[in-house]
Amino acid sequence: DAGITQSPRHKVTETGTPVTLRCHQTENHRYMYWYRQDPGHGLRLIHYSYGVKDTDKGEVSDGYSVSRSKTEDFLLTLESATSSQTSVYFCAISEPGGEVGDYNEQFFGPGTRLTVL
Amino acid sequence: TQLLEQSPQFLSIQEGENLTVYCNSSSVFSSLQWYRQEPGEGPVLLVTVVTGGEVKKLKRLTFQFGDARKDSSLHITAAQPGDTGLYLCAGVDPAAGNKLTFGGGTRVLVKP
What we know:
The structure holds 2 protein chains of 2 kinds.
Chain A: E1 4-7, E2 10-13, E3 19-25, E4 31-38, E5 42-51, E6 54-57, E7 64-70, E8 73-78, E9 87-94, E10 107-108, E11 112-116
Parallel strand pairs in A: 2-11
Antiparallel strand pairs in A: 1-3, 3-8, 4-5, 4-9, 5-6, 7-8, 9-10, 9-11
Chain B: E1 5-7, E2 10-14, E3 19-24, E4 31-37, E5 44-49, E6 55-58, E7 61-65, E8 71-76, E9 85-93, E10 99-102, E11 106-111
C-alpha cells in the first residue's frame, strides 16, 4: 500500500472558523490531489499539485486554498468554513509516467470526515 | 468538464448471483479506471483499461472498455459478501491535463 496519511481523520468545527487538513506521503510522488466526496457525486477535484509550490485549481476550488512547501506534504485550508463544506476529504498521489502510457493511476489516503456546524 | 454516469446507483444481490455495473459518457476518454471503496477507507484501484474494446479479467471481475472509449462495464461473477463496496469509475481526460473525472459510484451489497 502507498504510504499516505491524512490528519485529522475526523473534525467537527463551527461555521466561520479556519480549518487545515494535512496529507503526508512517503512515496516521493510528484502529483498530489485533494478531493471531496459527497453522496451521489463521486469524487470531485478541489486542488492539485504537480510539484513543490506548484498548484492548480480543480472543479470545486471556491472556498479552498492549498499549499505545498515540501514534496511529502500537501495542505488544504478552508479559510472560513461553511456548512456546505461538510464532506469527506480524500488526498491522492500519483506519479505519471509521461505522456505515453500516462494513465494517472492514483493512490488514496484514508480520508478526513469534516463536519461544519 | 466531461461527465461520467454510473448505473445503477445501488445494487443488492444474494451471494452467488452475477451483477453488472455500467459507466457511460458522451465524451471520449484516453483510458478508464475502476476503483473499489470500502466504508471508512479511500478508493483502491482495481484496473485500468486503455484500448477500445479491451477486456480485462481480475479473478471473478471482468472489465470492458467500449469500442469508442466512451463507456465501460464491470461484471462480477458469483458475487461474494467480500465484493460489497462502492465501485467508482474514473476517466482520464487528456484535454484536462490527464486529470480524472469520477462517476457518482455504484453501491453494491452482496448478502450471504
